Amino acid sequence: MQVKLNVLVGAAAALLSGAAMSQELVVKIGHVGPTSGAIAHLGKDNEMGARMAVEELNAKGVMIGGKKAKFELLAEDDGADPKQGTAAASKLVDSKVNGVVGHLNSGTSIPASKIYSDAGIPQISPSATAVEFTSRGLKTTFRVVANDGQLGGTLGRYAATTLKAKKVAIIDDRTAYGQGVAKEFEKGAKSQGAVVVGTEHTTDKSVDFMTILTTLKAKKPDVVFFGGMDAVAGPMLRQMKQLGIEAKFMGGDGICTGALPKLSGDTMADGQVVCAEAGGVEGEAKKSMDDFRTKFKAKFNTDVQIYAPYVYDAVNVLVDAMVRAKSADPAKYLPELSKTNYKGVTGLIAFDGKGDIKNGALTLYTYKAGNREQIAVVR
Known about the structure:
By secondary structure, this protein is an alpha/beta fold.
């Protein structure tokens, strides 16, 4: 009798457990960024933003289609390398993720986006700015920051009008991002009457720029623009000082990080660097961003580098679309994603027909005493 009772109790427990399990919906969120290599500090910053969002969503007990959602973060490292990026994308597709936030770089985001598109999996990049990323008609591709056309063009016009630069020199690192933002800077500067006196190229792994900087020094530019990331911009600034080049140094969001002063060996003069972040908050939204930074520092014991708030928002935007669609099935919530109107820590997020953020803002910064200081928010 006791054996029968134990069997019955066990069966009842199994049924109850099964019922509870059936009411829980596992939702896999993929994240990809370079957590190894020269810009690992930026990739780790992104991943922490994703982790923070997922942990908070689990603590809230989000319901999707009548079931309690349990969110899992599947994080991959692409090393800022296109081949590694496509391998990471394929791995996430094989893992049947419900959505992806990433990649960090345009050079990895563009080839990976085709893989996600073919699988029907929505992808939101928090930081890829190349125009090409959203210009190919892929319905699964979105971003929560302004693109290079806005970013590079704004910096070019700013160089000519506000900084009164007559002669500009341009260097790019031959990546999709670096070439794209440099090209748009050139257009913007020329549109306001500035002349390009020299164009040079390097790579995203280079550390010696003496030859190209010596060539540019002879042309006496008022501004040197660099299309690339902070890991290369830092040593470049150090070598500019060694050569006595006193030109202003400009760049996009790739150089506009808290790590830049240290990477330059603290050789930057106050106000020498002007850069732009592909995003911007002002007014009421500024408090949300400040609160996020405080919360992030308390959680991870490190400051936000640059993109973590955009990653955090991107994760929440995916989940917001799932909640509205009452489903985590990519095919079912994708139509809702394109209708997004989400108030995040980085501001209001809505997408146009290409997947670009509507009315994308840019924030211009400079550095003083080793600290980044905001100049203005422009749209």
